[in-house]
Amino acid sequence: MQNKDKSGSQPACLDNMREKRRPLKAHQSESYLPLGSRHPCLSQGMDVKVSPKAHVFRTGSEPALSPTEIRRFSNEAHPAEALRGSDSQLCPRPPPKPSKAPSIKQSHSPLVWQSSEANYCELHPTPPEDCAWSDSYSSRNSYIEDQRTDDIESLSFSNSELSFPALDDSISQCSATNFCGNVEDNEFNRPVYETVSSFCPNDFQSVLLTAENKPLETALLRRAKELFTNNDPKTIAKHMLRMDCKVARILDVTPEVEKMMGVSSGLELLILPFGHQLRLDLMERHTTMAIGIAVDILGCTGNLEERVATLHKIIQLAVEVKALGDYFAFSAIMKALDMPQITRLEQTWTMLRHQYTHTAITYEKQLKPFSKYLHEGEALDTQEDLTVPLVMPLIALLERQSVIFEGMDFWENHDRGCEIMFNHLQTARQVAQYASVYRKNAERILEGFKPDELMSEIFKTEFQMRLLWGSKGALLKQSERYHKFGQILTALSRKLEPPS
Do the record's keywords include Amino-acid biosynthesis (predicted)? Predict the structure, then answer.
C-alpha cells in the first residue's frame, strides 16, 4: 500500500505527513509545534547512522508559549501526556485552545524555574534557633546545615547551572563564632510604639502658673504680654526655634529616647508608622501656638493703636522665624494671621497700612506668597539654612482620621490637588534624608544663645494649653477644645469690630 493511500487509523510516517499537518496549524495556531525538519533523501547505497530524535513534549496547549513568559515543566510528567517523535499516533482529540482571559492563569509549579525572567518572590525561611542565623539571615558566607533543608534540596534551579563547592572548613568553623560575637555589638532594639503624649499639662512645673488655674486668666495674659513686648523679635524667634527643636526631637535627644525611637531624629520618626504620637504632639503644638497668637491680637481690648502695634510685631516675628529656617513656627504664625477672626478686622489692617506701611507690604508681597509656596510643597530646594521644615501638610496626610482639622486642606480645593499632595510626600523623603543637616543648622544658629527662663516657659506647649483652657479644660478631647475656642475667638473679634 502506498503512503498516499494510507488513511484513518493506519500508521504513517511522520515525515510524510507534512501536507496533512499543515491544516492542523490553521485550527490550532498556538498548539502547532514543528516536530523536526525533514531529512534529505539518501540513496540506498549510503550507510549513514542517524541519531535518534530527542523526545519532543507536546506543549502547544500551554498558554506560556511566548518567549517572555516563564515555562515550567513538571518533573513527573506521564508518558501518555507527550507525543514522541518515534510514535505514529496522533492525539485522538486536539487539546483546547488556551484561554485568553486575564483572570485565568496557569498554575505555577513551585519546583523548577526555567527562565531568568522569573518574577521575584519573597522567601520567608524559618530561621534556626542558633545565634548565627539570628544575627545574619543571609547565607552568602557559608552553608548552614539544618534539618529543615531536606525540602530545599529537592528543588532544582536550572537558571545558572552552577555547582557551588562547599567552603573551607576553617571558614565554616569560624563563621558561627564571628556571628555570635557580633550579636551583642549589633543588637537590634525594636522601636517603642508610643501611645501617651509627651505633654502633661497638670504635671507641668511652672513659675508663672499656679497648681490650678482658669482659662484666660487676666494676670497670666498680662504677664505673657509684657514678656512678648519687652523682647525684640529676633530673641523671641530664637526661643521659639529652641522649643520647636525640642518638641520635634531635633535637639537635646537623649540616648534613651533615641533608642526608644529607633532613629536618631524625630524628623525621621515622623514618616514612620510608629511616629503616630509624635505627629499628634506636633499638631497639638502647632494649633495651640496659632490660637495663642490670635488671642494675643484679639485680647487687646484697649484702643486700636495697641492692637495695630501687636499685629506689627507679630509680622516682624514671622520675618525672623522665616530667616532662622523655622518653617514650623512660621506656618503657625501665618495660620493665626489668616484666621477669619483676624482677617475680618478691617480697621486694624487699614491702620497697619497707614502707620507701618513697610510691614504691611512685607506681609502682602513676601510672607503670604512664600506661605502659599510652602503649602504647595515647592520650597525645599535648598537645605542650607533650614532648621525645622514644614511638616504640617504631611501630618495632615498621615493623621487624617485621628485629628480634627478646620475646614478643608489646601490641596482638597485646589486645581493641582494631586500634584501638591505628591510634592508633600516627596518632601517627606527629603526631610528624613537631611535630618542631620537640620540639626547642625539649628546648633549653629543657637550656639552661644542664652535663653530666658520665663520667656522659654511661655513658649512651652504645656503652658499655652494651661493658659488657654485652664488646668481642667486642658485634659479634654482635642476636638472639643478647638471647637469651643473657635467660638471664643469669634466672640472676641465681633466685640472689637462689630459686624456692620
Answer: no
Is residue 107, in this structure, part of any structural domain at all? no
Q: Over the stretch 402-418, which tens digit does the pLDDT of each residue have?
A: 655 555 565 566 677 78
Q: What is the CATH number of the domain that holds 479?
A: 1.10.840.10
DSSP-assigned states of every residue in 76-87: T--GGGS--TT-
The count of domains in the chain is 1
Q: Report how far apart, in Å, the C-alpha atoms of 265 and of each of 45, 108, 254, 414 are.
A: 89, 45, 11, 33
In a domain, 135, yes or no: no
365 DSSP 8-state letter = I
The answer to whether the beta carbons of residues 182 and 135 sit under 8 Å apart is yes
Compute the Cα dihedral for 146, 152, 156, 158 and give only its sign.
negative
CB contact at 8 A, 266 and 279: no
In whole angstroms, give the CA distance from residue 283 to residue 247: 11
The whole domain housing 409 covers 218-496
249-284, pLDDT tens digit by residue? 999 999 999 999 999 999 999 999 999 999 999 999
Does 7 fall in a domain? no
- Name the residue type at position 216: L
Q: Is 388 helix (H, G, I), strand (E, B) or coil?
A: strand
Residue 22 lies in a domain: no
Rounded to whole angstroms, the Cα distance separating 203 from 9 reads 98
Chain-centroid distance of CA 372 in Å reads 24
C-alpha span between 198 and 195 (Å, rounded) = 9
